[in-house]
Amino acid sequence: MTTETIDIIPSTELQVVPATSEPKRTLKSVFADLQERAKAARAKVAPLADQISGMHKGNVEVISTSRKTLGAGLKEIGQDSVAEGRQAIQTVVADVKEMAALRSPKEIVQLQRTLAKRNFASIKGFAAKTGTALRALAGEALTPLGERLQANLATVRNKAA
Q1: What is the pLDDT of residues 143-160, one digit of tens each?
Q2: Which end of the chain has fewer CB within 10 Å, C or N?
């Protein structure tokens, strides 16, 4: 009887590479390749970084402009409020003088009713005027910021596309 061996597992032969300078050359070529890729990446990123820097500079300018607009508007509203306050003080002084000249309780009640109606209307008008001025000022101050945001988003979308 003859026995035959069957190779089920193919033989794997290991090749021993003699120690030469070849690994050094391979390592040098890998590092050179990495340096070339890094340079290419920097070349792609540098214009984008410049553009982002320009966007930030524009953002700061718009914020500064909006801040100045808001400050000037609030100053104007404050001056108007001070003028209204002065007028109110003069009105109160005149009302007190008028009340001092009254002689009967009926006249005092009628004057009180008249003053209450006038003062309520004055407060309502002042609040409406101030509210309108503040809304207009907010719109005026925030419009450049919104426009700048839209421009920034358009720039980013164009770069992403």
Answers
A1: 999 999 999 888 888 877
A2: N
